[in-house]
Amino acid sequence: MSQATLYSVSYDLSNTIASALGSVLPSGARDLITSSGVVTGFAVVIFAVIILAATMLNTILLIWWERKLLGRFMDRRGAMHVGFAGLLQNFADGFKLFRKDTVKPREADPLGFYFGPTAYMITSLAIFGILPISSGWDTGALPLTLLLALAIFAFAPLFIFVSAWSSNNKYSLMGGMRSAAQMIAYEVPLLLAVVSVVIVAGSFDLNTIVYEQQNYWFWGPLILALIVFVAAMLAEMERIPFDLPEAEAELVEGWNTEYGGMFFAFFMFTDYLRALVGSVLVVLLFFGGWTLPSWVPSVATSWPLAGIFWFMVKTYIVFGVFVWIRASLPRVRTDQLLRVGWNRMIPLGLVSVFVAALLVVAKCVWPFGCLPTP
Amino acid sequence: MATEITATEKPNQNPILWVARPMATAARQFAKSLFRPSTIVYPYERLEDPEFREKVAVASGKPIGLGQVWDNYRGVHALNIATCISCNLCQFSCPDLCIEMVTVPGGDPKHPKKCPEIDYGKCSYCGFCSDACPEGCLTMTTRYELSVTKRSDMVYSPQRLNEVFKTKLPMNPIRLARPANEDSILLDVPLCIGCNACARDCPTQCITMLDIPKPEAKAGEKIPKRIWKEPVVNDSDCVRCGTCISVCPKECLFWGTRK
After folding, report:
1. Which of A197, B122, B219, B251 is most buried, judging by how many CB atoms fall within 10 Å of its CB?
2. DSSP B190-211
3. Closest Cβ opposite residue A327 in set B19, B26, B34
4. Beta-bridge mates of residue B171
5. What is the pLDDT of residues A44-89, one digit of tens each?
């Protein structure tokens, strides 16, 4: 049996369902249902549903993980009453928000008010359609996965600004303007850090980037790029210490002040969705994706779905570091934020691009080893 | 040119430390609370539970404070219905008017037994009632959990207070000694008609009706129609509840210092 991929799993599932349905239907309907076109189309739907469900489940788990970790950092326990160790607490919170009413301010623009959070969530969800999580578990060989993912990731300031402006609230507007300024300022160092990885790997395809890390993970030689990437990602995700757009002490709740109920849930959910994207990108670009170093015994990787398991473990550890940063550092001022962005991060990013170029020229670097020969 | 140095920007300090030092502190805190955070998970763990104290304070090496409910803590009342004499003193002494005397089974039909029913929605836990109780049957325990979902559940009936008594929780041991110069029940002799109401209703049976001689009729004087008996109060048994004063039909009993 060949290795299970996301597409083969969903195709088999679709085939099974179609033949089971066909066996109880008359022959004309059976032929229609079991025809290859219908089965393939249905397989694509199942494929999308699996990705959507896995993404949502992981995002909710991520919130639980943050609550538990943050609790330990603050010498307390996080959520612990609903479900085992509070695992179902976020589902309960979600149901609560789902049942609540969304109150639209009278002067708010309904189109932007409802379109903003929806588009914010949809675009962020779309990124997961193209991120590979294990070998074969992706949408197929897109040559520019990384570029596409970052392009979709960069949509967010637009929708935040749209919803902030449509709210017709000065705090929302200030938060939206801060958000746009911050995200655009940190887009440059983020892309510089990504460029240094792309230079070393020689490809925009995330599968190739992971493949290129078989001898050593990129975080060692490209430590500067990692620092710049994580700092820029924190600013892009609007997490503490860069959560100026929703600074509670100054701006009530920032750009989502006027939102309640399900649309507030959209915003919160998408914040963690973007945090998940950030963690996944850090793992893919710097920590070898779903692979493990060669000295790890093959027992760890020989069982089915081991790649996904190790990928998840790495992602949650990386997100744990984000939580650690959140628990440690206070919020910075706007001028400090922009000064760090333009004066420190961009020069560091340029240096890391230079380091990456040296790495490609040298091929082999002690103590890391050599790049794989094409 | 003088440079202005603000508190947040000290040029002498290494900027790396601005990030590294708080992160080290947070990591230390994380390691400390990884297996046992300081939080006490209250409904499941109680500070006063000796088993829990042993586990936490001894096993994890984390002292968690004194964690003791003192014996004179004023929590929910315990009422021993069997020794209650229905003297009403708790109700009189209550500054919040939260005590109501309700009938409980066990008294004779003419003079029903009445025990306090306490509304914890009004109670201020001053403890006057348990201080006033002459028999020590109404005391305050160390129970402090009162959360209920209905307001009517805050009213504790005598039976419910008796249940608290049966749990044998530590009770408030403070008993006030009776003052030496306490007032006594005095009798305005000419008004008394010897009706026996005070002796009948006295919760401690400290009033006895003694015969008095019927005076000789003098010329032009009318002997009043009455029972030729007079109440005598045994001061050492009297709890000063005032029931006799309130039941006296002629208002001939009053508080005063016995000569």
Report:
1. A197
2. GG-----HHHHH-TT--EEEEE
3. B26
4. B141
5. 888 888 888 988 899 999 999 999 999 889 888 888 888 888 889 9
For residue B152, give the 3-state DSSP assignment.
helix
User: Does residue B162 sit in the same domain as residue B188?
Assistant: no
Domain span at B236: 184-213+223-256
- Which residues on neighbouring strands pair with residue B233, listed in sequence order? B207
B16 touches chain A (CB under 8 A): no
Contact status of A71 with chain B (Cβ, < 8 Å): yes
* A74 found inside a domain: no
Contact across the interface for A73 and B26, Cβ inside 8 Å: yes
CA distance B138 to chain A (A): 38
- Token pair of A320 as six digits: 């744990």
Query: Which of A292, A156, A306, A295 minimizes the C-alpha distance to A233?
Result: A156
> Are A320 and A167 within 8 A, CB to CB?
no
User: Which A residues, 295 through 324, put their C-beta within 8 Å of a C-beta on chain B?
Assistant: 324
Residue B31 maps to a domain: no
Answer yes or no: do B158 and B100 share one domain.
yes
**C-alpha pair distances (Å), A247 with each of A97, A154, A257:** 22, 21, 11
CATH label of the domain that carries residue B89:
3.30.70.3270
Output the six-digit token pair for B209.
Answer: 């009706």
Does residue B130 lie in a domain region?
Answer: yes
CB atoms within 10 A of CB A99: 9
3-state secondary structure B41-110: CCCCCCCCCHHHHHHHHHHCCCCCCCCCCCCCCCCCEEECHHHCCCCCHHHHHCCCCCEEEEEECCCCCC
Question: A370: which strand partners?
Answer: A364
Closest CA to A128 of A105, A145, A111, A108: A145
Q: Which residue among A76, A324, A325 sits closest to B37, beta carbon to beta carbon?
A: A76
Nearest to A71 among B23, B32, B37 (CB): B37
The size of the A-B interface in CB pairs under 8 A is 41
Q: What is the pLDDT of residues B132-161, one digit of tens each?
A: 888 888 888 888 888 889 988 899 999 988
CA distance A250 to chain B (A): 19
CA A109 to chain CA mean position, Å: 30
Model confidence pLDDT, tens digit, residues A80-98: 888 888 889 988 988 998 8
> Is the omega angle on the peptide bond into residue A241 within 30 degrees of 0, that is, cis?
yes
User: CB-based contact (8 Å) between B33 and chain A?
Assistant: yes
Q: Report if residue A199 sits inside a domain.
A: yes
CATH number for position B229 = 3.30.70.20
Answer whether B44 touches A (CB < 8 Å): no
Q: Taking 50 as the threshold, does the pLDDT of residue B254 lie above it?
A: yes
- Complex confidence, ipTM: 0.77
The residue among B6, B17, B33, B35 with the most chain A CBs within 10 A of its CB, best to mutate, is B33
How far is B119 from chain A, CA to nearest CA, in Å?
32
Closest CA to A192 of A371, A326, A360, A352: A352
Rounded-to-integer distance, Cα A368 and Cα A351, Å: 19
Task: Provide the 3-class DSSP secondary structure of residue A78.
Answer: coil
Confidence of residue B173 (pLDDT cuts 50, 70, 90): low
* pTM of the complete model: 0.75
pLDDT mean over A166-178: 87
